[in-house]
Amino acid sequence: MAAGEYLDYLAVERGLARNTIAAYRRDLTTYCAYLERAGIMSFDEATRQVVEGFVADRRDGGYSDASVERALAAVKGLHAFLVRDGIVAQNPTAALRLPKKAERLPEYLSVEDVSALLDQDFPEGEMGLRDHAILEVLYGCGLRVSELVGLDVGDIHIDDGFVLVRGKGSKERLSPLVGSAARALTLYLTEGRSRLAAHAHGTESSAVFLNKNGRRLSRQGIHAICERYGRQVGLVGLHPHTLRHSFATHMLAGGADLRVLQEILGHADISTTQVYTHVDRTQLTEVYLAAHPLAHR
Q1: Does 148 lie in the same domain as 80?
Q2: Is pTM beyond 0.70 here?
Q3: 143-174 pLDDT tens trace
Q4: Which partner for 210 in 71, 125, 183, 196 could form a disulfide, CB atoms 3.0-4.6 Å apart?
C-alpha cells in the first residue's frame, strides 16, 4: 500500500514520466518480495544492512550497473517518502550513496554518415515519405523516440518554424523545425499521411506518424525504420537515440550555446547536456594527435 502511495506521489506531484514510474514499480515490487523472503513484514523493520543485501542480490543476479542504481534510487526514494509522511520513524537508506556513474560518451554519427542516411533513395509512396520524414525530424529536431511517436498534427507549426514537443514528465517545449526536416515533414503531411489515415477503422488518429493501418506508429516501429534504413547505408544497428546524440554533437561543434541546446533537448539538468562537450573535446584531441608534429614525442 505504502509503495503504491509513493508511486502515485511520483506520478501526480513530481510528474515523472510513465516509463520511469513503470520501472520504479518493477523495482519496488522486487524489493518488497526480497523483504518478504527475508522475513521482514513492515518497512520499519528494514535496516541499512537489509537494503545493502537487496543491492547485492541485484548485482549477483547479473543486472547492469544502471539497473541496480535505478533500483537503489527507487528504494531510497520510497524510504524517504515513508519518513516524510510519518509512516516510519527511521530511514535506513539515509547514509547510502548512489555510486558515481562511469562517464559514458554517447554514440553519434559523422556529418557524412547522416547525409548518407538522409540522402538515400526512399521508396515511392506514402511509406517512403513517412520514413524519410521520421529520420529527418529525429535528427533535425533532436527528439526522443517517445516524443516523436507522441506528436499530433496540431503540434506541428511549419509556417512558424517550430514543433510543440511533450517530453519527460509531460513537460512541453518548442523545438525548431526548419530546413530539410521541415520540407520532408511538409511533403509527408500533404501527400502521404492522408493515404495512411484512409486505412483506419473508426475515428481517425490525431498522430503525425501513422502505421499501415492508419493508427499511431509505435516506438518499435520507429526502431525498425531506423535499423532498416541505417543498414542500407552501412550503419548496422542504428538506434533512433543515436540521431538525437548526433544532432546535439553537431550543434555544439557548430557553435551552439550550451543553454540553448539544453532547452532544445529538453534536459532538466544542464549536466546532462554537458556530456556533449566531452564528446567535442574527444574529437578535438583526436584531431590534435593526428595533426600536431610533436604530439607523439
Answers
A1: no
A2: no
A3: 999 999 999 999 999 999 999 998 877 788 99
A4: 196
